[in-house]
Design goal:
single chain; Ferritin
């Protein structure tokens, strides 16, 4: 499919974000399994639930446009996932808090990709006057921002301090 119109771009980016979220979901679960701080584990599990909801929203939107959300492979997220595994899951750490600090770092990189994706899709949907899509995508965007803020609060609230010790 060529990208000739904003609607073509919108559908292509829906598929890209679907792929990105599918990849992020798997590694987020792995990050939760590697984390030691209970609040961080809870936040990552909530993040995984939010990512799954985003996948469901994208599927629903794509179906509403007589499209499938499959077909793309997001190479950007592939790289972020490889980095997360290498630096937070597979890496050896002397202190659990240091691993937890790295997990936050890697998760926030994943979330920032989602924020960019949902933000662009919301803007496209708004321009295309797809009001129900805009509403659903903005809810996903808001949830992504909230996940990012939660991780920042965990980092600055104690995990980074513990990693210094």
């Amino acid at each position: 499919m060529g990208i000739n119109t904003l609607e073509d771009l919108y559908i292509e980016q829906l598929k890209d974000l679907h792929s990105a979220n599918t990849q992020a979901l798997e590694v987020t679960k792995d990050l939760a399994g590697a984390a030691t701080d209970e609040d961080l584990i809870d936040a990552l599990n909530a993040g995984a639930d939010g990512i799954q909801k985003g996948i469901d929203v994208i599927n629903t939107i794509a179906e509403g446009h007589d499209e499938t959300s499959n077909g793309e492979h997001c190479k950007g997220m592939e790289g972020l996932v490889k980095e997360a595994r290498a630096h937070a899951v597979d890496e050896t750490f002397g202190e659990n808090a240091t691993r937890d600090a790295m997990i936050i770092t890697q998760y926030q990189r994943l979330v920032h990709y989602a924020i960019a994706g949902y933000g662009c899709l919301s803007a496209f949907a708004d321009r295309l006057e797809l009001d129900s899509d805009v509403k659903a995508l903005k809810e996903c965007l808001d949830a992504s921002y909230e996940g990012d803020r939660t991780m920042t609060a965990l980092a600055t609230g104690g995990i980074n301090k513990e990693a210094v010790a």
